[in-house]
């Protein structure tokens, strides 16, 4: 699958995906102004125009990348395994289904997604992923 930032300086190629998730954690909401709607792409993400990518170490175990020119969010990457979560809106013509919401206990009351999905709390997410490491 192909995608790009708003200005086109950065292009991504990711494995074929069909499922998207929503993260309601404080970090994702602060990063984008609302929940992060993303696809889990694993470590196999090809980035063209890497010289236009800025990376922010948002925690000891993850980083967030964005385009230096237009500010588009490009990915959230786990440092331990290189797994990428790419914003769903970057992908061209993606036919996605929202299949999970995480950090549901951090979701503010001013919005609600209508999709019927599994909803995991922050504690459940931390148990599912790498041994209790926080958000970021």
Mean pLDDT: 93
| Unreliable segments of 5+ consecutive residues | none
Which architecture name does CATH use? Answer: Beta Complex
What's the end-to-end separation, in Å? 26 Å
CATH topology: Metal Binding Protein, Guanine Nucleotide Exchange Factor, Chain A
- Percentage of residues in helical conformation: 10-25%
User: What is the N-to-C succession of helices and strands?
Assistant: EEEHEEEEEEEEH
Number of domains: 1
Biggest pleated sheet: 8 strands, mixed
H/I helix tally: 2
Structure description:
The longest helix has 7 residues, at 26-32. The protein has helices at 26-32, 122-128, and strands at 2-4, 11-13, 19-23, 36-42, 46-48, 53-56, 62-67, 73-78, 84-87, 97-102, 119-120. It has one domain (2-131): Metal Binding Protein, Guanine Nucleotide Exchange Factor, Chain A (Beta Complex). The chain is 10% helix and 36% strand. An eight-stranded mixed beta sheet has the order 6-7-8-9-4-3-10-11. The chain is globular and about 35 Å long. A hairpin with a 6-residue loop joins strand 1 (2-4) and strand 2 (11-13). The mean pLDDT is 93. The chain has 136 residues and is mainly beta.
Overview in brief:
It is built from 2 helices and 11 strands; from the N terminus they run βββαββββββββα. With 136 residues, the chain is mainly beta.
What's the SSE blueprint?
Layout: E1 2-4, E2 11-13, E3 19-23, H1 26-32, E4 36-42, E5 46-48, E6 53-56, E7 62-67, E8 73-78, E9 84-87, E10 97-102, E11 119-120, H2 122-128
Parallel strand pairs: 3-10, 10-11
Antiparallel strand pairs: 1-2, 2-5, 3-4, 4-9, 6-7, 7-8, 8-9
């Amino acid at each position: 699958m192909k995608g790009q930032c708003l200005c086109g300086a950065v292009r991504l190629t990711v494995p074929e995906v069909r499922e998207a998730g929503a993260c309601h954690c404080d970090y994702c909401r602060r990063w984008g102004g609302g929940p992060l709607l993303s696809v889990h792409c694993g470590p196999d993400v090809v980035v063209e125009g890497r010289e236009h990518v800025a990376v922010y170490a948002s925690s000891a175990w993850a980083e967030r990348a964005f385009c230096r020119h237009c500010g588009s969010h490009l990915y959230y990457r786990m440092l331990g395994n290189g797994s990428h979560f790419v914003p769903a809106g970057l992908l061209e013509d993606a036919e996605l289904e929202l299949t999970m919401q995480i950090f549901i206990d951090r979701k503010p009351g001013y919005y609600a997604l209508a999709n019927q999905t599994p909803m995991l709390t922050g504690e459940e997410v931390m148990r599912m992923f790498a041994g209790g490491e926080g958000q970021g």
